[in-house]
Amino acid sequence: MEAIHTQGIWIAEALQQITKSQDKLWLIATHIGDPKAAFLLVFPLTYFLNRRTGFAVVWVAAISEWLNLVFKWMLFGERPFWWIGESRLFEKNPPKLQQFASTCETGPGSPSGHAMVTAAVWWVMASSLGSLLYSYTRSMLLSAVPYVLYLLGLVAVGFSRIFILAHFPHQVIAGSLTGFILGVVLSRQVPEGRPLVFFVSSSIGLLLSALLIHSGLTWLGFDLSWSIALAKKWCSHSEWIRLDTAPFSSLTRDCGAILGLGLAQYWKPGGYTLPCAPRALCLALCSMALYHVHRLPLPIQPQPLFYFLFFIKFTIVPQVVMIYVPGFVHLLTHKNKND
């Protein structure tokens, strides 16, 4: 792996040197590809265009991110920003590389979570839009456009992760391929219409199984906190280390989102049926609401409290999109009609 990692460092250096004037575009791409963007950005956008697709986005995002966490625990992948120092191969010829605020993630690096979740979630959107375009136009050319955009977006996210030194190229490729397969498989088995007990059981099952895997690996002698120590050691700015990038943050996010899906469906089976204009208003209001939910500060100590509140935050997200905001808009428009 040393040769692969070394080659990855030189690729990252070349990418930074050639495209250093486009660093803001790479940072935007990495933010769009962040797994939490699937819940906070992609989900509301797709939900108000097509209910099933929006539902599928949350389900696919949660399952693929959970699997990514398990893979990372088992594969022990390095990250470029700490491997450069730990390997001690570049003491005589150090690469000219820059870290960014998004660089210093604390989990293991393989496979790339951004690439894996993006590939899975965006496949749901691309396949849904492609099918819709074909049903209306019967044009293979037009229906292929979403898939081309899917590929271009995935490449952009992958390059952005290499550019900011969060991942090696092979980790991005592995994440993209795995996410594509998951997107194809999971999008065919969306549990829309299942009872609340299914989602409660799924949320608890994902949480307990992850904790069991973590405990089992720890019992076998593996130190699963090794990456956190390295991230803190080699990150150029200590304030760039954030608890919401820790492995258990993604776990609580996924479990909370799945529970939130079940609760939203339980409170209002079938959702609200709204015309185009009210749905556009819902999207605008949801964007503002989720922005404030995301920005809500959480206490980082004690850590169990942080993870519990993080779980609650993402349990609320599907309910905001599927119940609270559409319910408010439905009430508002229904009242105006009566007046």
From TrEMBL:
Pfam families per UniProt: PAP2
Domain Phosphatidic acid phosphatase type 2/haloperoxidase: 53-187
Binding-site list for substrate: R79, R161
Localization (cell): Endoplasmic reticulum membrane
GO CC terms, sorted: endoplasmic reticulum membrane
Gene Ontology MF: a single term: glucose-6-phosphatase activity
Domain of life: Eukaryota
Family: Belongs to the glucose-6-phosphatase family.
Protein's recorded name: Glucose-6-phosphatase
Source organism of this protein record: Oncorhynchus mykiss (Rainbow trout)
